[in-house]
Amino acid sequence: MKKRVVRESNEIYLSEYGEKYSKNLETLERIFGRERTIERMIKTRESKKQKLDEEIDTLKNELQERTKQIKNLSKFLSPSISILHRKKYNRIVGSVYLSFGNKKSRYIQFHLGTEEMLKDKTKEELKEMTRRLFLRKIGQ
After folding, report:
1. Residue 85's beta-bridge partner residues?
2. Which one, of 83, 140, 73, 70, lies nearest residue 112 by Cα?
3. Domain parsing of the chain, residue ranges
4. Mean pLDDT throughout 43-69?
5. CB distance 90 to 111 below 8 Å
6. Residues 6 or more apart from 82 whose CB is under 8 A from it?
7. Could you please report the per-residue DSSP string of the chain?
8. Average of pLDDT values for 106-133?
9. How far apart are CA 12 and CA 19, in angstroms?
10. Is the pLDDT higher at 109 or at 18?
11. What does the pLDDT average to over 70-79?
């Protein structure tokens, strides 16, 4: 059986140089190692930040393209607007019905206000309010 050989360490212990240098660290190698680790962490985070910035830019460009498409499509939309009186809650709601042929159709409803607030408005004015809210929602 071989005898175990204990090598002598060449590490420089900072405790020999006083408390000022040895706070939370034992050796000089650990200080250099920690420095390299921190530099590597900074580089990886900066590269992640650049990737995320590029992704945000592409998403912003796509959002602008989608809003342009919605504006162009809204010119062809002819939504039917109706005014609903919610008697239980004493509210007036504007309802917009969108139909894309035989594709998915849906209602979009907008709260216009209470009957007390809107008692002097005509039905046409309420429909115009609903139309403006609808156009604002789709981004026009």
Report:
1. 92
2. 83
3. 10-75, 77-137
4. 92
5. no
6. 94, 95, 97, 127
7. -PPP-PPPP-PPBGGGG-TTT-TT--BHHHHHHHHHHHHHHHHHHHHHHHHHHHHHHHHHHHHHHHHHHHHHHHTT---EEEEEEETTTTEEEEEEEE--TTS--EEEEEEEEETTTTTT--HHHHHHHHHHHHHHHTT-
8. 87
9. 14
10. 109
11. 72
Question: Given strand 91-98, what is the order of strands in its sheet?
Answer: 80-86, 91-98, 106-114
61: left (phi over 0), alpha (psi -120 to 50) or beta: alpha
Give the span between the Cα atoms of 102 and 79, in whole angstroms. 15
CB 77 within 8 A of CB 120: no
Give the pair of three-digit tokens for residue 135: 């156009």
Q: Which two tokens stand for residue 82?
A: 């109706």
Instruction: Note the pTM of the prediction, 2 decimals.
Output: 0.47
57 confidence band (pLDDT: 50, 70, 90): very high
Residue 95 and residue 80: Cα distance in Å, rounded? Answer: 8
pLDDT in tens, 7-21: 555 555 555 655 555
Q: Tokens in use for 29?
A: 């190698």
